[in-house]
Amino acid sequence: MTVTDAATGPTATTGRPWASEALRRADPQLADLLAAEAERRAETIQLLAGENLTSPAVLAALSGPLIDKYAEGYPGRRHHTGCALADAAELLAIDRARELFAAPHANVQPRSVTSAMLAVYAALLRPGDGVLAMSLEHGGHLSCGSRANFSGRWFEFTGYGVREDDGLIDLDQVRDLARLHRPKAIVAGSISHPRHPDWAAFREIADEVDAYLVASAAQTTGLIAAGLAPSPVPYADVTVAASHKLLRGPRGGLLLCTAELAERIDRAVFPFSQGGAAMNEVAGKAVALMEASKPAYRAYAQRAVSGARALAEGLAAAGTRPLTGGTDTHLVAVDVSPLGVSGAEAERRCAAAGLLLGKCALPYDPAPPAEASGIRLGTGTVTSQGMGEAELTEIAGLVARALAGGAPAPVAARVRELALAFADRA
Q1: 374: closest CA among 221, 194, 222, 149?
Q2: CATH 3.90.1150.10 given to domain 295-423
Q3: What is the DSSP letter of 257?
Q4: Is 133 exposed, middle or buried (0-12, 13-18, 19+ CB in 10 A)?
Q5: Topology of domain 65-292, per CATH?
């Protein structure tokens, strides 16, 4: 199996640790499941916005000897012995994060973006404090006020949204709500908004009401690293980033902050919200950050954006309504109701054809959240496999054919053919 390396392009055939004889002998049932998952991925087209493929180097770091090291604490301040090399690995990841994002301080230990957000709230807020963030209905994350999440239970959230006419963030509303509620923190960022936030405008509003500015930049971390999206780091007190998604590292979070908040952020990660760091994940983050600093990664990110634009244009031509009229990023969100289907039905029909994407509630959506009117797609994985604008234009047509109903077999056959043509790069 060949894979695409973030720094050098397609690599030579690599081993597959999950397919090793040791695993087959020890646990044939799980080995079969992993083999089936590899086959599923090879025969379908992955358009889920939060997924991507890690490089061989990241996978090697994840399975390396640091997986066994207990390194509770921070470099030079561990609670266990034998951590000198673990310290070196973490310092390498920290230095690379600081350099890549021009950040005064970085914490590379969060196990997920949500746990990173928890640490931010713990560092800056007290239970009951007010927070202004994008409403869930308009694209905010669960950690921005959902009652099913710690955020909505511990803090008082007020949601801002986008304008109904153009789908862009209503900064006048943000300012008015900030003046009215005087929040302790303002969160800027979204999981589905395909345009870049105006970080300077958010900073200005936060300063006016003496609030912390938190940048929720998980979806666009990779674009920021590649210099293809404006960086929030010069404006935000804390930036919450993802090491997976477009950055193509292991699943996890990154925290970037001012020097003044460094100690508070670190203490909020450990010992407040996490125990010992997963040092193999820290090592994998170090590799991903190094790969993201290379010219080849910037070229990859540019292809992801151009592919997303081709996808959005193709879906618009098929009769859907792209949110905001297009995209600046690798994300595409479209209203499928003009085609007479809900987002949930669109997800089901596409999955039956081997096109994996997600339903998405849209701003001012008349449909209930369980059904929704939209779908959200991302080009990270297919771009890692080597697909470009031509393939994304064809994929838009395949999505449209799947949504039209009728016999799914011809669409599924072409999807499988196209997927397998690029499977050796996954």
Answers
A1: 194
A2: yes
A3: E
A4: buried
A5: Aspartate Aminotransferase; domain 2 (3.40.640)
pLDDT-flagged residues of the chain (< 70): 1-18, 425-426
Q: What CA–CA distance (Å, rounded) separates 313 from 394?
A: 11
ω into 271 cis (within 30 of 0)? yes
Parse the chain into domains and list their residue ranges. Answer: 65-292, 295-423
Retrieve residue 84's tokens.
């000198």
CA distance 419 to 336: 24
pLDDT at 425: 61
Q: Residue 186 in 3-state DSSP? A: strand
User: In this predicted structure, what is the pLDDT of residue 7?
Assistant: 41
CATH topology agreement for domains 65-292 and 295-423: no
pTM of the model: 0.93
> Given this model, what pLDDT does residue 344 score?
98
Tokens representing 161?
């949204």
pLDDT for 253-281, tens place per residue?
Answer: 999 999 999 999 999 999 999 999 999 99
H helices of 239-366, where? 262-267, 279-292, 295-317, 343-352
Q: State the DSSP H helix or E strand holding residue 32, giving kind and residue range, or none if neither.
A: helix 28-43
Terminal-residue alpha carbon distance, the chain = 8
